[in-house]
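Subject: Interface between my chains keeps coming out wrong

I've been trying for a while to get a sensible model of this assembly. When I model each chain on its own everything looks fine, but I need the whole thing in one frame so I can look at the contacts. Pasting all components below, labels as-is. Any help appreciated, I'm running out of ideas.
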Amino acid sequence: MRHTYECSVRFDDLDAFGHVNNVTFAEYLQEARVDFAYRHLAYGDAPHQGSVVVHQSIDYLAPVPFRSEPLQVHVWVTRIGTSSFDLAYEVSDATTLFARATGSLVAYDVSAGSPRPISDDERATLERFVEEAA
Amino acid sequence: MPRHVTHVPLRWADMDAFAHVNNVVYLRYLQEARVDMLFVHAPRHGAEQLAEGVVVARHEVGYRAPLQFRAGAVRVETWVSAIGNASFTLGYEVLDVNGDGERVVYAVASTVLVPYDLEDARPRRVSDEERLVLESFLETDGPLPGRSAA
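Reply #2:
Try treating it as a single job with all components included. I did that and got this:
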């Protein structure tokens, strides 16, 4: 199962080349990931039990000019380890795939400032979103 | 070959709710370094066209250590790791160099770039002038942003 985030494009997401800047795609991924986490991993009740990004890659496949219709950012889980997990993303609309991306995250105890094991609840939730990498 | 060195000032608001510099902001630091290298430095050495159009085809970032706001800038070293016919690849390290010369690396990254004709909306080949400038930063055995699994 994939989590889908409806992502609006803001006017100032575009750079001098007239398309959404490469850095902004990473923001879109972050918005989708945080939306996924807050809706499904319920960090809202325990915000210190978050996770941090330790690696990410983004392949840019097509430019995004300004648009009033939102983009869809799909996010799903490709691996679950002891204290880390991998995500895959696609940024698309009904007709075009604009970017593919991956992220590796480490479960992190923010108050202790150290990695922590993935909890049983988190694991159960993440497992519902496991799919193969695209 | 020497690396291109850019000092990027941190902003307080670069930090997120976890009180460290957000992962997205590292890409912005890379962009500052890349623009300084390709749009400011390279045109002075005969590669003016890069500033008129080059697009990112791929980024990879390995986050090595958290970075907190402080008064000083962070150092971004940039080099060229590969040059193809119609693309080239940059490597980067985001780091501090301490007084005793110790290097504290916060991120290692790479970017594949494609020279792009914005008017025709299509990629173009790397020109001879661009190749000369890029070759002056060539380092094919630099660190890679590879992922670690836990």
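Reply #3:
Confirming on my end. Residues 4-135 of chain B form a domain with the Thiol Ester Dehydrase; Chain A fold (CATH 3.10.129.10).
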